[in-house]
Amino acid sequence: MSVTKTGIVTRSLTLRRLFDLDVSMTTEESGPWSLFQKRLHEETKGVRWPAAMPDLLAEVAELFEIPISDIFIASWKNADVLKSEIEASRKAPEETSFLSLSDHTITSEFHPTIDVRIPGKAIKSLEFTTRLSLTLEGFTLRVSNGRITHINAGRYGGKGSIHYGDLCLAVKEFKPQALPLAIPIERRKFE
Amino acid sequence: MQGRLVFLLCALVYASQAPAGPPLKLAVDRTIIRTGERVRLSILPKTLAIQFSFAIGFQDGPIEVLPVGQTEIEHEYRIPGSYSISVTSPLPIPEISNNGIKVQVDRIPLTVEPRSVKEGEPVTFRIGFSATKDAATSYRFSFGDGSSTGWRDVPEVTYTYAEPEVYVATGAVLRMGWDQPIESSPVEVHVEVAQPLPKAVEGKPETSWSSTRWGIILVGLTALAVVAFAALKTWQWNTPPKLTYDHHRGGVRGNIERKAPLEVVMEIVLIPGIESGRHYVGKLEVKRVRDENGDRD
Fold first, then answer.
1. Residues of A (85-144) whose Cβ lies below 8 Å from B
2. Partner A contacted by B293 (CB < 8 A)
3. Does pTM top 0.80 for this prediction?
4. A35-74 residue pLDDT tens
5. Where in chain A are the domains?
6. Domains of chain B as residue ranges with CATH
7. DSSP for A29-93?
């Protein structure tokens, strides 16, 4: 369970926690996050940044408050066999299906972005590149009336990285581990 | 003195022996001149005059001798007055019909314009002296109120009296070669009290003061704006800007690796039953089971 800076409690495992961003940002003084800040100073010479950019790093950490289930869902959307099974569940809306998935591997690359603004003006767009390669084992999905309502169980492992341009900010290997709890899936995510 | 008596005696003796013929005549270019100016004396007719030598008395100093062959002479009067120019000679000369010609030497005039002014109004003084080019000329003004100018090249000056009174101003001229300056004639200047302006006119100074006030306000506001702008720039420079951050997490994408494709290996369906009190009676049915190869059991 993680607590965001806004105080919202979420049970979902997020990339922020997966990459231990809060720890690496505060402990690695001469690490990649320091290089990131220097790079940012160079790229925005006209902007008076706070000396240590604590706000910005917090914003970056917040940016990666992305549930890992979103990565799963985004990948499963592209699996035709799963889509057809889920669609078939619409025929008997009163029934609840539990789909056991074969072990499979998902890959993901996407680009979360932070637009830095001063009042009335955008001064910098910080685009990060996130790459993940995860092997999923023993996953069971709870499906009802044409949608996934829960991710019930499973183990995941693999590796991932976060980049800013050619600067590698975080790279991590994830040992196989079980999802902490059943994860409810919001309606909109698979529709 | 004895020399002059001897000269006059000789002249009388010579006159008694004066040659007969047409008389000589004296001519001056001006009969009225100003102090410091020169008068040109000619003895006519020239053809006759060049045959004699003359002694000329201008009455303001020693007799000047005009040698044979020279019939003209200039003389500069530095003291105002009325003078008679007399021509004599130790030798017999023809009779001079107008000997003792009169020349009036006036004081150098000082003109003032206007002669009567209000206090605070300017008056212009001018020294009426025709300077010749053969010597540098300087001018000085005394305004009668204890103030005066130094020596200057221009014969004109403008002055303003601060107090109402009748002042007597004078000028002076000094030329190279003169041992002392020549005073001009004095001139009176009447300076009167400045009368208060009528009410209708009193608005003018008020308007002027008002304009000044607005000018001061404008300058003050401008200065304030400049200071505020500088302070703002300094503040902006020293104070990090208030930054805001917009997050864009959209576009989370994922794919299933082809090497390890996703399959649904089992589907268990919970068929709803009948609720009976605290118990729920339903049916759990395994609808499909596939093995790792996708074959259905």
1. 85, 92, 94-119, 132-133, 135
2. no
3. no
4. 888 888 888 776 666 655 667 888 888 889 888 888 999 8
5. 2-190
6. 2-106 (2.60.40.10), 110-192 (2.60.40.10), 262-297 (no CATH)
7. TTSHHHHHHHHHHHHTTTS---TT-HHHHHHHHHHT--BHHHHHHHHHTT-HHHHHHHHHGGGST
